[in-house]
Specification:
Layout: H1 2-15, H2 20-40, H3 45-78, H4 81-87, H5 92-100, H6 110-122, H7 127-136, H8 142-151, H9 156-180, H10 190-193, H11 196-201, H12 206-220, H13 225-264, H14 267-274, H15 278-292, H16 299-304, H17 313-325, H18 328-333, H19 340-368
Length: 372
């Protein structure tokens, strides 16, 4: 009986709001603005453009996000914590280095990676390694390499620079987050830190919760392997659905804000403002990457469209490196995972490192007179 009460107490705590007043304010503001636009501006071409852009962003992100939540649910149920811990390198530094390169084995775009990372954090993966995978996974993977090669007419140095910069920045941010937040409770929300019992019980009623603990590992021996697999698969689907709706609401709000910015600010405005200034070009292209919310497997084609303008390659690279790591949609999707202070630290560190690395690349290429 005591086990049942503890289990359901954990379940109730897990069902409490995970993202705080800021998330509720964002969702409420999104609903008010969207409703106001539909009522007062529904006949204007600007709103029609906004609607098309918003729907296109959502439709592009939803399949990948659904895949990511499904992967997260499978990790939750089928990957024991002890087995995952045994697979991880013993040294935390090597774990961060491996995490940033994990996308080469499990290619995942940024729309899908947040629920996967949340599941890994619940399983005990160190914060630094999880952040490195969060930032590096959408860039350091074969699908992104292939799309970048096609977009840049198989200019392989461009592909190599993008992947190497993405990997190096992901590792640097992972190390910084690991040192900045020694205690993961300072960086993660309680629903993420309290993984084991909260995960297994939060979607079950009192009787199911008790039955789960009563059966345990020994009880599963009495059931057929097929029944046990079916039960685990159903549990994985339940977890996936919970993750999808929990994170999906933030993705919707982020997609709307991105569509609003895309509609109000034209791409020509960015190009005209650059006027041959590399630092300003990098900054504006980074801002464009944050606003556009493009998938990492498609953003290279947008970046390549600036090749024959005044936009230097360093700014194009800043667009392709920062976009998969940080955009409006991703920032809102981080709210159910990280505390606000951790999100600010993650965002600022990523932005600074991308800017510095692209300026170094710009001046090094100019000094060496390298044409890529």
């Amino acid at each position: 009986m005591e086990t049942d009460l503890e289990c359901c107490s954990i379940r109730d705590n897990a069902r409490r709001p995970r993202s705080g007043r800021l998330a509720n304010a964002i969702q409420g503001g999104f609903a008010i603005v969207a409703l106001g636009l539909m009522i007062f501006l529904r006949d204007r071409s600007l709103v029609r453009t906004l609607s098309i852009t918003f729907i296109s962003i959502v439709l592009e992100a939803l399949p990948f996000m659904l895949l990511g939540t499904l992967m997260g649910g499978l990790i939750e149920v089928f990957v024991p914590r002890a087995k995952l811990a045994a697979l991880m390198p013993k040294r935390r530094a090597i774990t961060v280095l491996a995490g940033a390169a994990l996308g080469a084995i499990f290619p995942t775009c940024e729309c899908a990676i947040v629920p996967v990372v949340r599941s890994l954090l619940r399983k005990g993966v160190p914060l630094g390694a999880a952040v490195a995978y969060l930032l590096g996974g959408p860039i350091v993977n074969p699908l992104v390499a292939a799309s970048t090669a096609v977009a840049y007419s198989f200019n392989w140095p461009v592909v190599a620079i993008r992947l190497l910069c993405g990997y190096a920045i992901a590792v640097a941010v992972g190390f910084w987050m690991d040192s900045r937040f020694r205690d993961q409770h300072d960086a993660l929300l309680p629903a993420v830190v309290n993984q084991a019992d909260a995960i297994c019980c939060r979607d079950h009623d009192h009787d199911n919760c008790a039955r789960h603990h009563d059966r345990g590992a020994s009880g599963l021996r009495n059931a057929s392997r097929f029944a046990a697999f079916r039960e685990k698969l159903a549990s994985a689907v339940h977890h996936s659905a919970d993750e999808f709706f929990d994170i999906g609401r933030f993705m919707i709000a982020g997609a709307f804000l991105a569509a609003l910015l895309q509609t109000m600010v034209s791409r020509q405005t960015f190009v005209a403002a650059i006027a041959g200034t590399p630092a300003l070009a990098v900054v504006l292209m980074m801002g464009l990457a944050v606003c556009l919310n493009l998938c990492s497997e498609a953003d290279a084609f947008v970046a390549a469209s600036f090749r024959f303008t005044v936009v230097p390659l360093s700014a194009q690279m800043a667009f392709m490196v920062l976009g998969p790591m940080l955009d409006i949609k991703l920032i809102l999707m981080y709210l159910p995972v990280f505390r606000k202070r951790a999100i600010i630290t993650l965002a600022l560190t990523t932005v600074v490192l991308v800017f510095v690395s692209m300026m170094v690349f710009q001046f090094a290429a100019r000094a060496l007179r390298v044409q890529i």
